[in-house]
Amino acid sequence: VTKHFCFDRTSYSSKKNTAKYNVFTFLPINLFEQFQRFANAYFLVLLILQLIPEISSLSWFTTIVPLVLVLAITAVKDATDDYFRHKSDQQVNTRQSQVLIKGNVSSLCCLQADLLLLSSSEPYGLCYIETAELDGETNLKVRQALTVTSDLGDDVAKLADFSGEVICEPPNNKLDKFTGTLCWKDNKYSLDNEKMLLRGCVLRNTEWCFGLVIFAGLQTKLMQNCGRTKFKRTSIDKLMNTLVLWIFGFLICMGIILAIGNTIWEQKVGSDFWEYLQWKELTINAVFSGFLTFWSYIIILNTVVPISLYVSVEVLRLGHSYFINWDRRMYYSRKATPAEARTTTLNEELGQVEFIFSDKTGTLTQNIMVFNKCSINGKTYGTLEHFLLYIHTDKWKTPCVDFSFNPLMDRKFRFHDSSLVEAIKLEEPLVQEFFRLLALCHTIMPEERNEGELVYQAQSPDEGALVTAARNFGFVFRSRTPETITLYEMGQAVTYQLLAILDFNNVRKRMSVIVRNPKGQLKLYSKGADTILFDRLDPSNEELMFTTSEHLNEFAGEGLRTLALAYKDLDEDVFDEWMKKLLFASTALDNREEKLGALYEEIEQGMLLLGATAIEDKLQEGVPETIACLTLANIKIWVLTGDKLETAMNIGYSCNMLRDDMNTVFIISGHTMLELKRKSWAPAKTNSAVALTWKRQNCIQVTLSLKRPSSQNLEQILVDVACLCKTVICCRVTPLQKALVVELIKRHKRAVTLAIGDGANDVSMIKTAHIGVGISGQEGMQAVLASDYSFAQFRYLQRLLLVHGRWSYHRMCNFLCYFFYKNFAFTLVHFWYGFLCGFSAQTVYDQWFITLFNIVYTSLPVLAMGLFDQVSLYSLRFPNLYRPGQLNQLFNKRKFFTCTLQGVCTSFILFFIPYGAFMTAVRDDGAHISDQQTFAVTIATSLVIVVSVQIGLDTNYWTAVNHFFIWGSLAVYFAILFAMHSDGIFTIFPNQFPFIGTARNSLNQKIVWLVILLTTVVCIMPMVAVRFIKADLYPTQTDKMSKPFSLPQVRLLQQATRKQGPQEQNLRRVRRTSSRRSAYAFAHQQGYGELITSGKNMKVPTSSTSTYPLYSPTRGLTGTSSVKNSGVNDTTRDQTETYSTGFRRESDQSQEVTVEDLEAR
Asked: What's the EC number here (predicted)?
C-alpha cells in the first residue's frame, strides 16, 4: 500500500464527525429537537391542561399515550440514523497514515491534510498524484519538492531535525493557487501550488513521500469547498407545517364559537339550573364559564391537530427507504454494491424532481478508453458490414480476433475485425507504419513487473488505449530512455533514436516525434485533430483526405473520439538546418514560445496521411437510455464538470444529450454584461419567426464566471436562457461553483433539484441540492458519505426517480389526504354535538375510543396503503406519468381543502343521521333506544366502517397485507368494544369501564345496523360517483394506464416490446453523422514530453547513443555547450525545467492503474 508521511506540527483534528448525538447527549438533544415541532409542543401543553380538573373532561392518558408513542418511535428512528452516521465516520476515521513525531514514526488514524511536499522516492523530489476527487480530472499530475528539501530523502533523522517555518495564505477554497514562503537555514524559498499535496489527491507511481502539514481538518482546501451541511426538508414537510398552523387556527375558531355558545346558553338557559347543580360561586359567571369551556373544547377537539401524523409519516419514509435498499434491480453485482437510502426524510421528494445536476467523469463515464475502429489508407477496420444483419438475434456473435501470435499481447484487449490482423501479417507497409506511429508518438512510460507483463503508465486513458492497440497488433512499446524508444515489431526488438518531442498544447492540438530508425532514416510521426492535421498535408493526399474525412464523420457520429495520423520522411540536411534554428529559438529571451511554434509549424508541413483512430470513451451502462427516459419525464439534466468544453461536448453527444437534430449549439462565454446579453439572445435574433421553437431545441455550454461581481446581474438572463434549452453543460467549474449553479436554480425556479456525483469535488453540489445522490465509483467515498442516496451506477437513477420516487410521492399524498379526512370526520362530531348538549364540553365517544382510534383502529390500514400502494406498473415505459409530481398536483392546499371538506361533510352525516333516526326509534321490545351510550356506539361503529370502506376505495393495489390490516382492524375494533363493555372488565376496573353491556344491547338491534348501513352509504356514495364521473370525463394519464387491456391490446403490446429491444441496440450502434470530431486532441492538456526528455523521471540513467543532441524546449539541447541565460538563476531554472504535470504510473499492483485493469473490473 502506498504510504505518505507527514510532520505533526499542528493541533488540528482531522477526524470526521457527521453524527449528531452521542450516548450522553442523545436524550436531551433529541427531545429538544422533537419539541421544536409545533404539534409535539402543542400536545405537551394540552397534557398540562388536562391535569386541571376545572377544564378537562378527558383523562390525561388520552393525550400522553399517543404523545409518548410518537416521541419513542421518532427517537428510535433518529438513533438508528445516527448509528449509521457513526459507522460511516468510523470507516473514514480509521484510514491509516503515519506521522513523524520527534524522530519516531507512529500510526495515526485518518490524517488527511494539505501537505507541503518535502521529499519523495522519485528522482528530483517528483511526486505523481491523481486529483479526481478535487477537480474531476483523472490524468495524473506531477508535484516537485524544493531542491533543498528533496535532499532529505527518507532519512528519518534528518527529517526529525527539520526546523523550517512556513508563512502562507490563510485557509481558502482555491484549489489551483497557493502562496507561501518556507524559511529554513536563514534562507527563504517561494512556495506555490506545484509543491502542495492537497487533501483528496491520490498518490500514484510514488512509493513514499514526506510532507509538512499546512492545513488540516476543516481548514483544508477540500473541506473549504464542501460547503456547510444543510438541514433538508421536503416541500410536503413545509406544507404540512403550514397546514398544521391552519388547522390550529381552525381549532381556535371552533373553540371560540363553542365558548360563545356556552356563554349565551349559560345566560339564557343554564342559569335556571344553577341552584340544582350547586356549582361553586366562582363558576356561576357565564363569561368565565365560556372561558373554561373554550379550553375544554380545545382539549376535546385536539385530535384535529394530528399528533400521530408525524410518526406515521416517519414510519412510511422508513419503509420506503428499506424498499430502496432491498431493490435487487438497483444492486450492482460486480462490486456487490446495493442501493442505499442514507436518509429517511426525502423519499417523496424523489417524485418531484425537475432539475438534475450531474458530474461527468465517473458519473456518466467510466473513464475507460477502448480502441474501437480505425481507418488506414482509405479503408476502415472494425466496422463489419454483416454485423447489423445479425444484431437482432443473440444466436450469432462476432468472434474476437485471435492475438495468440503475439506473446506480449494484452489479454484484456478485444477487437472484432480479423482483416486488420491479416493486413499486419501480410506486412502491408502503410498498416505497419500506422501502428508504428502509435507505438512511438506518445509520452507513456512502460513498467515491466514480470517478464512480458507490461503495464503502461499513461498521461491520459486515450494514449493508453492507442499504445495498447499497437501492442496487440504486433508493435509493442517495450521501454524508453530519454534518448531512445525500444519496440518489439512482430517479435523483433527495434530501437529508435528519439531526437525531438513536439508536444501537445492548447494551440497546436497535435503531437509529433522525430526519430531515427535502425536504417538511419529520419521520420516525423504526428497525431492530432483532423482539422489541424489536414491543413498540413501534402497536396497529393487530397483524395485520401476526403475519404478519411468521411470515415471520421462516421466514427464521430457514433460518439467515438477520433485522431488523424500522418508521417513525413525528413531530409538529413533539412533536419540539420532546422535543428540549428531550433537551438537559436530555444535560447531566445523574447517571444521564445512564438518562435518555437513557428519552427514546429515549419517542419510539420507536407506530411502524408496514414489514417485515423476511433476510441470509445466508455459510458456507464445504460446512460443514454437513462437520460432519454428522464428527458421524457420532463426532467432537465445539466452537466457540471471541471473538464474542458470539447471533452464535455463529446460526452454530451455520446450520451444523446447533444444531438445533430438540434439546430445549433450556443456557447455563452464572456465577462461583461453587454457581451453576455448579446450572446444569450443570439438565437432569437437569428430567426425571430421561429424563435420559441428554435430556442427549445438548443443547448448551451456555460463558461460564465460565477464569482465575478457582475454575475449577480446576469443570473436572471442565464436562468431564462438555460431553461429554454433542452440541455445545459457547464464547463471548467470548481466544486464551489457547482454549488452556486444549483443554488441559482433553487432560488430562481423554486424547483426540486437533484445533484449526482461520485467524487469529493461533487460534495458541495450534493449538499446544496434538495436531494444528493452519490455514486460509489472510482473517486473514493466522499460523495457517498455526503449524499442522501447512493448506488453504483448512473442508470439506477431512472428507477430511483420514476419508480421509487413516484410511488413514494403518490403513497405519501394519498396517505395525507386520507389522514386529514379521517381526523376531521372523527373530531368534528364533537363540534356538532356541542350545539345539542348545551356547549357543555361533553364528548360523544367514550374516552377509550378517543385514545385508541388513531393508534389502533385506523393506524395499520393507512400505513399499509402508504407502504404498499402502487399507482401504475408502467412507470418506466411511460415516463410522462412522472409529471403530476413535478406539478405538485396530488397534495397541495386545494387538495387539503377538498379532503377536509369531505371530512366535515362525513362528520355531519355521521352525527345527524343517527341523531335523526334515534329521535323516534324504539327497540324491538318497544323500549326507547336513544340513550347516550347507544348513540355513541352507533356513531363510533359507523365511523370505523366508513373510514375502512374509504381506504378501500383509495387503495390502488391490493395485497394480502392490505386485506389483513383493514379487516383485522375492524375485527379488533369489535373485539375491544365488546371487551370494554363486558362483565369481566367491569369486575376488574369498575370505575374505568362503567357501561356494562352497552355494546351487546345496542348491536343486537336491527335498527342500529340499519342506521349504520344508511350512514355508510350516504357517506361513501357521493365520493364514488364523483370519482367515477371524473375518471370517465376527465381521465388523468394514470387513469388511462390503469384501465385493463383487452386481449388484442395485450398481444400488440407484447409484439411492440419484442421489437423495441433490437431497435434500441441498433440506435446505439448506428447513429447519424456528426461534425464533432477530434475531441481528444482539443481536450488534451499540455503534454509531458519535456519531463521525459529531461530524464528526471528516469530512476536508472541511460547513456546516449544519439548522433544528435536531444531536444527539450525548455532545456535547449542536451549535450551541447552551456548557454548563458542572463536573469535566470538556478532555482528558477530548476522550477522551469519541471514545470508541468506528470504521466500516469502506479507502483502498487493492487490499485487500478491501466485501461486494461479498469476494463477487466
From this structure: 7.6.2.1
* CA dist., res. 1073 & res. 1051, Å (int): 36
Evaluate the CA torsion angle 13, 16, 18, 20 in order and state its sign: negative
296 with 261: CB under 8 angstroms?
no
Q: Cell 481548514 maps to which residue?
A: 219
Q: How are beta strands 104-109 and 96-101 bridged, if at all?
A: antiparallel
State the Cα–Cα distance between residues 1019 and 942, nearest whole angstrom: 10
Per the listing, cell 348538549 goes with 837
Rounded CA gap, 942 and 462, in Å? 73
Q: Is 993 annotated as a binding residue?
A: no
CB 35 within 8 A of CB 41: yes
DSSP category for residue 856: I
Residue 961 pLDDT: 92
The answer to whether 221 is a known ligand-binding residue is no
How many angstroms separate the CA atoms of 1053 and 1047, rounded?
Answer: 10
Residue 323 is assigned to a ligand binding site: no
- Is 636 annotated in some ligand binding site? no
Place of cell 385493463: 1044
* Rounded-to-integer distance, Cα 381 and Cα 371, Å: 11
CA distance 411 to 472: 9
Beta strands in 711-778 (DSSP E): 727-730, 752-757, 771-775
Q: Which three cell numbers stand for residue 1082?
A: 482539443
| 359 annotated active-site | yes
Q: Is 527 flagged in the annotation as binding?
A: yes
| Identity of the amino acid at 549 | S
- 761 appears as a binding residue in the annotation: yes
Q: How confident is the model at residue 705 (pLDDT cuts 50, 70, 90)?
A: very low
Cβ atoms of 575 and 604 within 8 Å: the answer is no
Count CB-CB contacts under 10 A for residue 235: 16
Q: Any alpha helices (H) in 955-1046, and if so which ranges?
A: 960-980, 983-988, 998-1003, 1006-1033, 1037-1042
In sequence order, the β-bridge partners of residue 371 are 615
**Cα(110)–Cα(94) distance, rounded to whole angstroms?**
6
Asked whether residue 541 is marked as a ligand-binding residue, the answer is no
Contact 866, 812 (CB under 8 A): yes
Q: Is the pLDDT of residue 1108 over 90?
A: no
Place 1015 in a pLDDT band, splitting at 50, 70 and 90: very high
Handedness of CA 1027, 1030, 1032, 1038 (dihedral sign): negative
Sequence-separated (6 or more) residues with CB below 8 Å from residue 1111 = 499, 500, 501, 579, 582, 586, 1093, 1117, 1118
Under the banding of pLDDT at 50, 70 and 90, the label for residue 4 is very low
> pLDDT class for 644, splitting at 50, 70, 90?
low
Pick the catalytic residue: 359, 417, 617, 788? 359
